[in-house]
């Protein structure tokens, strides 16, 4: 019985620690009561009680004897200065870039859900909505991706003119400079819609509105630069590109080998200070057609014309494309994509100081400009692009799986295909929720560096999985290139999004956790800043305050991880519906993540950068905690529709299963195996539990993707839907509409064993059924239209010019998909089926 009461008291203390942040005096009283109660039960031997009393005495002295504690801190301070990561100038600028938001709550181990749920969801203005449903819809209607990608390898000139005149290149530029002044949501929505229709159009629009001259000018440009360039960028008179990446500076962009030497030259008739720059850049989107180049280079002042410093740092200048010494025009061929991309070279290009963005004051501030711009920009464009193509793939895959039949039933009724469809639906919902939450932060004026990196890296990676699964569902339909293939070009180009604006492999293994561990941690950045200073009375006092808070937070997270790991019902969450479980689970795993993160930081210190596998796994944990939070926020913001619950549960289960697996792997491969062994019972007090979506839930998502519904519309909303039966996607939607109408009739015929004889064509069979009075004229018409639409929908392209045996005069007559034209609605006239009448 004594053991029982001791466990009750100990559990109560753990629960109090988990739920409340205790003061020093509360800690003192609690520990004293716990030791006294342990002695009262008589469970422990006298020798053990002596040890407990000694430990209590040491603990109380530590908490209340300030002079003794400060002596201890002097030694710890010196030791931590050697262990914790020091920051280089470029790392410091990256850490300082942007802001923290929900990532800080997840790092704390005790996320405050009220803070997240009270933030209003972003919404489009009337002007933005009109632009989407009018201008952008009309633009999508005239985009022919096959013509663009295969025949022209460029956008038609009329499209370029349209993009310029209608302001697509100036969506982020304020109206006072002639731009649209659109919100992040509007910017994202336009890119999403265009990308789902034409990847080339989507990329062409996203680049000027993402990391480019306009973004940099708005934040750092001089008044004269803004007044000259922004109106010209807004209306398309100037086409920009950003020249950063080169043969020897890719992911390590801070090590640019392109140097600009400060010198004095005669320019436009007078002596002018400027940089003589030679450079070699590649992979630059819009470079072949750019009229103004945002050029990044390393500035040097060997003659000390500006001061004593020789290495001035990375600098960004606006260089007109026609400047003497600049060579551009050649194009790369990025996986067959038709957007303009190519190299830029320069030899002894003179760049006056007035061309430096921000003028002379901003020389050497280029790296800061880049990381601060990325903090917001990469959370918009590439996630929008990826969600757009995923939504298209989800819509088409569900419909195609319902249309395509094998072994006498739709392929979507086979469990193997349902596995793919369920994951397509779940991933798409997860991606879109993450996109919305990042946009929500941006709408609040935040520039969430870590969350933007998560959005870019993980949304683009999930898009790759969605497209791969969709290709599996489509089979040969997705493989045969041609006008009828709406997936093949996306499949080819999906690695581009994985690579640009920070390669995912680097972002995951170095940036997300490496930057987040310092920037988003409740105490680490404060600690690093204090340790960067020499030891003094003032620094020791600050160190004391930080360390007491750090230790209290760590102990609280240990208590939370253990208590909430035993039962999520112990988590204090102000929810009453069934979503409460997932709020609680995220809180539980947040605490577990926090203690493993702290253990890793304290054990590895400055060598954390070298343990990329550990950092990558911790990045997986943080990213999926964020994505699960996004799912719950999105569900709440859309009114908690009951029909969407399966998507919510699937997404939460998947995300938290990824969290659990990543933590398990992190502990199994912890740099210090003993520490990993000690952490395991804290992270998994009852062992691992199954969280992944089960087969039944997966099947429900698959069936939801194969027929129209409110959930289906919400899942794929925002993409362009072409209703023409001449359009490849329009054919699929039209065929599905007819198939759903015809299915009850086809089911009746199967039940009556009235199946098409092998010797008769489909039309002959319908004629026979009419003669036998088994179907009516209207029913025959419906079946005939359905069959024709089905044949057209599943058709693939074939090209005579690719054949070795085709005579020259037949080359121009390339065969194409079923050309049989059918009206979208049933005719009121009596149906004629191969000459048969009613």
Task: Describe this entry's structure for a reader.
- The protein folds into four domains: 2-64, no CATH class; 91-119 and 383-705, Butyryl-CoA Dehydrogenase, subunit A, domain 3 (Up-down Bundle), CATH 1.20.140.10; 239-367, Butyryl-CoA Dehydrogenase, subunit A, domain 2, CATH 2.40.110.10; 749-810, no CATH class.
- Helix content is 58%, strand content 8%.
- The strands form two sheets. Strands 1, 2, 3, 4, 5, 6 and 7 form a seven-stranded mixed sheet that branches. The chain has a two-stranded antiparallel sheet with strand order 8-9.
- Helix 17 (415-443) crosses helix 25 and helix 24 runs antiparallel to helix 27.
Write the topology of this structure.
Elements: H1 2-19, H2 24-41, H3 46-64, H4 66-83, H5 89-96, H6 102-108, H7 113-117, H8 126-141, H9 145-152, H10 157-165, H11 184-197, H12 199-209, H13 213-220, H14 223-234, E1 240-243, E2 259-267, E3 270-285, E4 292-300, E5 311-320, E6 326-328, E7 341-352, H15 366-377, H16 381-403, E8 405-406, E9 409-410, H17 415-443, H18 449-474, H19 476-479, H20 488-499, H21 504-519, H22 524-531, H23 537-566, H24 580-604, H25 612-637, H26 645-668, H27 673-683, H28 695-705, H29 710-716, H30 728-751, H31 762-771, H32 777-794
Helix pairs in contact: 1-2, 1-23, 2-3, 4-23, 5-15, 8-11, 11-12, 11-16, 12-16, 15-18, 16-17, 16-18, 16-28, 16-30, 17-18, 17-25, 17-26, 17-28, 18-20, 18-21, 21-25, 22-23, 23-24, 24-25, 24-26, 24-27, 25-26, 26-27, 26-28, 30-32, 31-32
């Amino acid at each position: 019985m004594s053991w029982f009461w001791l466990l009750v008291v100990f559990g109560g203390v753990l629960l109090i620690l988990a739920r409340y942040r205790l003061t020093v005096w509360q800690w003192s009283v609690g520990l004293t009561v716990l030791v006294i109660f342990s002695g009262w039960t008589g469970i422990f031997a006298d020798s053990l009680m002596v040890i407990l009393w000694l430990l209590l005495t040491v603990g109380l002295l530590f908490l209340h004897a300030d002079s003794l504690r400060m002596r201890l801190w002097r030694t710890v301070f010196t030791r931590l200065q050697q262990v914790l990561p020091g920051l280089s100038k470029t790392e410091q600028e990256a850490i300082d870039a942007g802001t923290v938001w929900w990532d800080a709550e997840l790092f704390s181990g005790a996320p405050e859900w009220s803070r997240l749920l009270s933030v209003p969801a972003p919404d489009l203005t009337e002007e933005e909505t009109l632009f989407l449903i009018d201008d952008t819809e009309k633009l999508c209607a005239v985009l022919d991706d096959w013509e663009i990608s295969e025949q022209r390898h460029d956008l038609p000139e009329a499209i370029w003119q349209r993009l310029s005149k209608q302001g697509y290149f100036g969506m982020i530029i304020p109206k006072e400079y002639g731009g649209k002044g659109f919100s992040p949501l509007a910017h994202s929505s336009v890119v999403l819609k265009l990308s789902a229709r034409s990847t080339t159009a989507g990329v062409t629009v996203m680049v000027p509105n993402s990391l480019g001259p306009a973004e940099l000018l708005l934040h750092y440009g001089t008044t004269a630069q803004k007044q000259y360039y922004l109106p010209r960028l807004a209306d398309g008179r100037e086409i920009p590109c950003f020249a950063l990446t080169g043969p020897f500076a890719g992911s390590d962009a801070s090590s640019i080998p392109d140097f600009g030497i400060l010198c004095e030259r005669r320019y436009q008739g007078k002596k002018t200070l400027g940089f003589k720059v030679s450079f070699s850049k590649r992979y630059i989107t819009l470079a072949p057609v750019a009229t103004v180049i945002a050029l990044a280079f390393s500035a040097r002042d060997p003659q000390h014309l500006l001061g004593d410093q020789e290495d001035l740092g990375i600098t960004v200048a606006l260089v007109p494309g026609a400047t003497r010494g600049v060579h551009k025009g050649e194009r790369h061929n990025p996986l067959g994509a038709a957007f303009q991309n190519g190299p830029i070279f320069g030899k002894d290009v003179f760049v006056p100081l007035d061309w430096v963005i921000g003028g002379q004051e901003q020389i050497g501030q280029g790296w800061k400009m880049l990381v601060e711009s990325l903090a917001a920009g990469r959370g918009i464009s590439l996630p929008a692009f990826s969600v757009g193509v995923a939504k298209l793939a989800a819509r088409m895959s569900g419909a195609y799986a319902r249309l395509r039949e094998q072994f006498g039933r739709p392929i979507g009724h086979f469990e193997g295909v349902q596995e793919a469809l369920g994951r397509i639906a779940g991933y798409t919902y997860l991606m879109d929720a993450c996109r919305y939450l990042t946009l929500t932060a941006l709408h609040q004026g935040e520039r969430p560096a870590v969350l933007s990196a998560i959005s870019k890296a993980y949304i683009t990676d999930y898009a790759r999985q969605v497209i791969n699964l969709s290709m599996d569902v489509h089979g040969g339909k997705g493989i045969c290139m041609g006008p009828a293939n709406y997936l093949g070009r996306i499949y080819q180009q999906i690695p581009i999004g994985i690579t640009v604006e920070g390669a995912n492999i680097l972002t995951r293994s170095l940036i997300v956790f490496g930057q987040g561990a310092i920037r988003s941690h409740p105490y680490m950045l404060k600690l690093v800043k204090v340790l960067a200073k020499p030891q003094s009375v003032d620094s020791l006092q600050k160190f004391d305050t930080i360390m007491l808070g750090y230790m209290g937070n760590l102990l609280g997270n240990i208590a939370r991880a253990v208590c909430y790991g035993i039962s999520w019902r112990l988590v204090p969450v102000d929810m009453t519906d069934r979503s409460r479980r997932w709020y609680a689970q995220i809180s539980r795993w947040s605490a577990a993540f926090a203690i493993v993160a702290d253990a890793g930081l304290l054990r590895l210190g400055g060598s954390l950068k070298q343990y990329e596998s550990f950092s990558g796994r911790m990045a997986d944990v943080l990213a999926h905690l964020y994505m699960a939070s996004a799912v719950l926020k999105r569900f709440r913001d859309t009114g908690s529709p009951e029909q969407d619950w399966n998507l919510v549960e699937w997404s939460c289960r998947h995300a938290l299963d990824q969290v659990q697996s990543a933590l398990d792997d992190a502990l199994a491969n912890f740099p210090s195996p003993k520490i990993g062994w000690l952490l395991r019972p804290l992270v998994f007090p009852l062992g691992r539990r199954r969280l992944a979506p089960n087969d039944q839930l997966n099947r429900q998502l698959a069936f939801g993707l194969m027929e129209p519904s409110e959930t289906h519309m919400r899942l794929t909303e925002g993409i362009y839907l072409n209703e023409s039966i001449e359009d490849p996607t329009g054919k699929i939607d039209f065929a599905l509409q007819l198939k759903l109408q015809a299915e009850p009739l086809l089911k009746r015929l199967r039940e009556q064993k009235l199946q098409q004889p092998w010797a008769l064509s489909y039309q002959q069979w319908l004629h026979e059924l009419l003669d036998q009075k088994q179907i009516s004229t209207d029913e025959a018409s419906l079946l005939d239209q359905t069959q024709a639409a089905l044949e057209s929908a599943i058709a693939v392209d074939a090209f005579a010019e690719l054949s070795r045996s085709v005579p020259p005069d037949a080359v121009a007559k390339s065969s194409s998909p079923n050309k049989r034209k059918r009206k979208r609605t049933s005719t009121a006239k009596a149906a004629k089926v191969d000459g048969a009448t009613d």
